[in-house]
């Protein structure tokens, strides 16, 4: 028998806003740069910022929620401390929820999609604010089952990324051969 507990998202995850951009100055990466700015685009050139006062950094076990595409990301490993701007929220899962399970649930489950659709704000460019996000109801299986689901989901994402890269390389190879004529 599978036991599933339904909880409010705010009861199992701490949610905080990203850092206000008026406190930070863009920098191209010169010496003295303190922070790297989060971007979900893994192919983008990293952006760095300096700040007069300390910024709250994103830790490796935290998740980053993009408010406009309404998507959740694992915090990437970076050489510099990572910060998220106000276009993002940072989620810190409690011991009751596996981060990879939460990422799957939020990005892929029909239940989360339905709640996102009901909570949208805006007209043409919709976003999800912190208040409604905290009220989302999540069905939590046992932590062991969450870990299995999360591990499977993360493995699937890695496989998809590798296949996408393989297709890109095949396209480059094909065009390289055909353009030598």
List keywords for this structure.
181 residues, alpha+beta, Adenine-n6-DNA-methyltransferase TaqI, Chain A, domain 2, four-stranded antiparallel sheet, 5 helices, 10 strands, 36% helix
The CATH homologous superfamily name equals DNA methylase specificity domains
The largest beta-sheet arranges its strands as: 2-9-6-7
| Main β sheet profile | 4 strands, antiparallel
**How many distinct folded domains?**
1
CATH topology: Adenine-n6-DNA-methyltransferase TaqI, Chain A, domain 2
Portion in strands? 15-25%
Structural commentary:
This protein has 181 residues and is an alpha+beta fold. It has a single domain, classed as DNA methylase specificity domains (Adenine-n6-DNA-methyltransferase TaqI, Chain A, domain 2). It has 5 helices and 10 strands. It has a 4-stranded antiparallel beta sheet with strand order 2-9-6-7. A hairpin with a 4-residue loop joins β6 and β7. It is globular and about 60 Å long. The termini are far apart. The model has no long low-confidence stretch (mean pLDDT 85).
Concise description?
This protein has 5 helices and 10 strands. With 181 residues, it is an alpha+beta fold.
């Amino acid at each position: 028998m599978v036991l599933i507990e339904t909880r409010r998202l705010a009861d199992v995850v701490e949610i905080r806003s990203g850092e206000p951009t008026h406190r930070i100055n863009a920098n191209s990466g010169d010496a003295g740069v303190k922070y790297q700015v989060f971007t979900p685009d893994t192919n983008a050139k990293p952006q760095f910022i300096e700040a007069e006062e300390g910024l709250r950094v994103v830790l490796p076990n935290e998740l980053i929620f993009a408010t406009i595409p309404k998507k959740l990301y694992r915090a990437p490993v970076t050489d510099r401390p990572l910060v998220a701007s106000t276009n993002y929220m940072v989620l810190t899962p409690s011991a009751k929820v596996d981060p990879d399970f939460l990422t799957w649930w939020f990005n892929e489950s029909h239940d989360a999609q339905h709640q996102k659709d009901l909570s949208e704000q805006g007209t043409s460019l919709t976003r999800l604010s912190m208040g409604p996000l905290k009220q989302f109801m999540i069905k939590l299986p046992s932590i062991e089952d969450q870990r299995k689901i999360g591990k499977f989901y993360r493995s699937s994402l890695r496989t998809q990324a590798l296949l996408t890269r393989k297709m890109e390389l095949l396209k480059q190879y094909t065009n390289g051969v055909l353009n030598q004529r």
